[in-house]
Amino acid sequence: MKWNQRRALSAYLPNNRFFAALVAATSTLWASGAIGAPDAESPDRPAMPSAGAAPSAAPANPPSAPLEDTSTKRASFEIAGYDDNDHVTVVTPSIALGIENVSGASLHATYLVDVVSAASADIVSTASPRWREVREAGSVSVGYKPRDFGVTVGGSVSSEPDYLSYGAYALVTKDFNEKNLSLFFGYGFSHDTIGRCGDNGICTAFSVFSRELQRGSFNGGVDFVINSASLASIVADVVIENGDQSKPYRYVPMFSPDVAPRVPKGASIALVNASKLPERPLEQLPLLRERFALTARYAHRFDASTLRLEERGYRDSWGLLASSSDARWIFDLGKRFALWPHARFHIQTPVSFWQLAYVSAPAPAWDLPAYRTGDRELGPLWTVQSGFGIKWYLGGELNPAQWAVQLSGDGMYTAFLDDLYLTSRIAGLAALSFEGQF
Questions:
Q1: How many Cα atoms sit within 13 Å of 231 on the Cβ side?
Q2: Residue 73 in 3-state DSSP?
Q3: Over the stretch 340-377, which tens digit does the pLDDT of each residue have?
Q4: Smallest Cα–Cα separation from 291: which of 253, 256, 261, 322?
Q5: Half-sphere exposure of residue 319, counting CA atoms within 13 Å on the CB side?
Q6: Tens digits of per-residue pLDDT, 18-27?
Q7: Residues linked to residue 429 through DSSP beta bridges, in sequence order
Q8: 3-state helix, strand, coil in the chain (%, to 5)
Q9: Which of 131, 188, 193, 186 minimizes the C-alpha distance to 158?
Q10: Can you give the pTM of this predicted structure?
Q11: Which terminal CB of the chain, N or C, has fewer other CB atoms within 10 Å?
């Protein structure tokens, strides 16, 4: 997507697709009983009856009983939507499949499509028309944890007309103290290729124009049981990004030194165009970004409800500091329904090179700042979000959770504290999903 590139940090691709397919096939056969335990006796030698046993006309080697299927198979379909007052709309259908507990092995796969339509202030300010774009993304992971030590490997690929991302990751876990304490560590690597498309929808080949971005992600933490009703976890993330993340569509207005101090917050497109210098250079961001995050989670089970809390602190080498707080309280309404309110608050400082109005000397002695951006997500802001969700269990009396329908919705208000064009944004999120387990 051109203006709102919501790239996942874990964009991964399997290193060996044949191995992943082999594990999937073997897991399915083992779960179905097609792969049975070896016979105790050689097939060409009849079994000897025990002492005192009466002769029998039955075959000496009766067929082995099929293994019991102890696996859990899951499938879900979701349709999600986003809309805001900056004329951005996103519709995302997705599917997820998984099989777990196959002698300690598991397999999961997802696929989604983002359909985006946008005519935001950023686009209108460059005299570009409303544009539409489609992003496809898929992922697969394979895990094996027969006892207290487990390994998971996986990958995904994401593709748009002007963007391609792929990579791989691995995660190891170790349980202690009868699984009351678990440690985990993971590493992922991804490679992004950033291209460019014109307003006519024709995209330049990557061989002609492209920018490369490589990302290494380190993740580690601990999950632990506090008591019979409470769980907690602490997770640390370190992400190192190398490459040019500047948007090839984003032009940054420049102002003379005497005009820049008088440019107001939320200045309109007409005012900016009338006040800026003729030059309008492309965005330019630093080529290295180091991200650090620490997340604490807590869950407590009451008699008929579950409280979940999360706090995340973040800083990076661009000077951005952020805090995100999230709370969800899930109430059981009998065996068939669950209802929860949800609230989230996020606040952040700007990157060190952020300016409301960038200053440059006029032509021909242009003196452009080394780093410049019009991405308001890099500026100072705060967001408050709240909503609700409801889940309806449709399974049989013995297992109501076998089938379920879930509906959730959230409203968001974001205040941009030092930005052109917009001082606030109102947005809505909604999702409807269908889940089944077999």
A1: 12
A2: strand
A3: 999 999 999 999 999 999 999 876 767 889 999 999 99
A4: 322
A5: 11
A6: 333 323 332 3
A7: 82, 410
A8: 10, 50, 40
A9: 193
A10: 0.82
A11: C
